[in-house]
């Protein structure tokens, strides 16, 4: 079983499709972490995941709400902690304190699928599928590399099932 693998996409639609294939096999309690620069494609990928999970409504960027919950075949919590990291840096308050205020522990313990943009240390130590989205050098504007890594037994299993689906 592999624990790290990467795939290239050539368009936002392709990134959504790859995300959709993952969404189709996610199970309650799975954690998916999305990192990469602003505009790398984390939300685009998340939209595909939501479709795969069977969520009918459009998934939007939760930057200002921190987290949004959707229900499909399983419950999906889509979080974007960018603003929280920003607030920690500006206020000098520890991130752990800000996380406690938004009830982050409860999100981690819930049986929803947790999909997190800008996780930072909020997801340290979790068994998670970590995906870094990386832009290609110019002029390949619409190309991204998705570097995927599983950090535990459960996420390895999911990565394995997902990679098999890339081929079909
Ligand atoms: N191969 C690709 N995969 C994903 N997005 C792509 C690709 N090519 C071009 N794009 C474009 O890049 C942008 C990605 O935006 P998106 O909001 O998904 O990024 P993000 O990583 O969530 O950013 P942020 O950190 O601000 O939340 C979109 O405008 C999308 O159309
Ligand atoms: Mg985003």
Explain what you see.
There is one protein chain. 36% of the residues lie in helices and 24% in strands. The chain has a single domain (4-166), classed as 3-Layer(aba) Sandwich (Rossmann fold), CATH 3.40.50. The protein contains six helices and seven strands. Helix 1 (12-23) crosses helix 2. It binds adenosine-5'-triphosphate and magnesium ion. Magnesium ion binds at residues 42-43, 61, 80, 117.
Short structural summary:
The chain is of the alpha/beta class.
Features of the shown structure:
168 residues, alpha/beta, binds adenosine-5'-triphosphate
Helix content: 25-40%
The count of domains is 1
Radius of gyration equals 15 Å
For the biggest sheet, the summary is: 7 strands, mixed
**Uncertain spans:** none
Bound heterogens, unique: adenosine-5'-triphosphate, magnesium ion
CATH architecture label: 3-Layer(aba) Sandwich
């Amino acid at each position: 079983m592999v624990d790290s693998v990467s795939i290239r996409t050539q368009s936002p639609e392709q990134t959504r499709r790859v995300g959709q294939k993952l969404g189709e096999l996610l199970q309650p309690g799975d954690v998916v972490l999305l990192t990469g620069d602003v505009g790398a494609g984390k939300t685009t990928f998340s939209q595909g995941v939501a479709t795969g999970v069977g969520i009918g409504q459009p998934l939007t960027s939760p930057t200002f709400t921190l987290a949004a919950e959707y229900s499909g075949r399983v419950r999906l919590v889509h979080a974007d902690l960018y603003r929280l990291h920003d607030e920690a840096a500006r206020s000098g308050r520890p991130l752990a304190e800000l996380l406690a205020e938004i009830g982050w522990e409860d999100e981690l313990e819930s049986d929803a699928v947790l999909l997190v943009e800008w996780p930072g240390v909020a997801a340290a130590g979790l068994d998670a599928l970590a995906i870094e989205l990386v832009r290609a050098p110019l002029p390949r504007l619409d190309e991204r590399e998705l570097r995927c890594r599983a950090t535990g037994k459960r996420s390895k299993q999911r990565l394995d099932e997902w990679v098999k689906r890339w081929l079909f």
